[in-house]
């Protein structure tokens, strides 16, 4: 038939043009470099968190001075040298995909320089003792490395900048969490609503290459270990439903707080942040330091150790309101302006919330509810339920809980949509609005370094001006 593929013709075209293979080697090499960059960043970030905990163990009240000073220094350095390295990571990668941005504006968000600055800034934030994670920044770091491959590709390769960014972002998630399926679904659900055949092949190849580097460095292990669930009875239905609703409400509130805080209201705190960002960062650092002292440094970083303790069935020695304290510490850490991820803190908040619900309603199903809480809160924060479900399923080896994780993530995401707009997409839209080409002569770096103008208040936007009376007719001239 005429529509059948010409096998011999395809072979001849592959052999006749060696540049095709050179382009493929370039893409594969940069995918390996993207995975290696995430591995090195992981080691750097973990070292920063461990150094802070060691310092905290030496003198408990040391963070009251150390955390504000280092937080202010990181914010100053980021604003001064690499404003594009700010934020959590996924919104910056999502904004870079927008076709309205030119090459210069896109390079202000994803490049080798930005990747290096991001890694150093997150290291500084973890060294300061803030409640941030490293998985979200891994998306922007890997995307910046993969985006650099465009300089070495031939015009005939047909590989666009968008495809490189999607592949790098997916590889970053896959390597950071050791969840290849999670990386694929994240790219489809969050970064690219539609993927062409060539794009999907490039993305899969990048994930495989980056995943091989991560597995070679850390082993093929589940991020939070393996949970053992023999049987789930109907007794978990009511606690699970309560947990899904709670995750949806709190996750939506968390996303809404971040949107309002980062792109500002007209309250006095936002006004002070716009006028004095360095002082505001120091104040946020001081508040987080107090929370760290109260929680004995368990709220520092992403909180992986706390989550592993809960999944192991142990009861950590933490304050009763630990979930609320971690919630506030993560919000303040993001509001301070220090670059840092939200994935792992959200998973930890969800795990702690599931543990709280289990203590109140169903202690015998604690492990199940902890895993459901992780998926539910992450889905509510990102409003990407499929990604949240698959990431949690792979991280805890919870394949026996697929239906439960899916149901909790979908319900929590639905409730969150009633409370807040999508967090990452909203932040990305704000970044694109600031970086889109305009008539000004400012560079993209200067536009990013400037504080965001306050959004108009709803009252000002809906107030109808009072009707004015028509002008009086002119008086007739006197005779």
Report on this structure.
This protein has two domains: 15-218, Orthogonal Bundle (Clc chloride channel); 234-422, Clc chloride channel (Orthogonal Bundle). The chain contains 22 helices and no strands. It is mainly α and 479 residues long. Helices cover 68% and strands 0% of the residues. The longest helix is centred in the N-terminal third of the chain and has 41 residues, at 18-58. Mean pLDDT is 83; it is low at 456-479. Pfam families: Voltage_CLC (PF00654). It is a multi-pass membrane protein. Residues 467-479 have a biased composition (Pro residues). It is found in: Membrane.
Could you outline the blueprint of secondary structure elements for this entry?
Blueprint: H1 7-16, H2 18-58, H3 63-81, H4 90-96, H5 103-107, H6 112-128, H7 135-147, H8 161-177, H9 180-191, H10 197-218, H11 237-262, H12 268-275, H13 277-294, H14 304-311, H15 322-335, H16 343-361, H17 366-382, H18 385-395, H19 402-417, H20 423-435, H21 444-449, H22 458-462
Helix pairs in contact: 2-6, 2-7, 2-8, 2-10, 3-6, 3-13, 4-20, 6-7, 7-8, 8-9, 8-10, 9-10, 9-18, 11-15, 11-16, 11-17, 11-19, 12-13, 13-15, 14-16, 15-16, 16-17, 17-18, 17-19, 18-19
Transmembrane segments: 25-47, 59-79, 164-188, 200-224, 236-259, 280-300, 320-345, 366-392, 398-415
Pfam family, one: Voltage_CLC
Protein name: Chloride channel protein
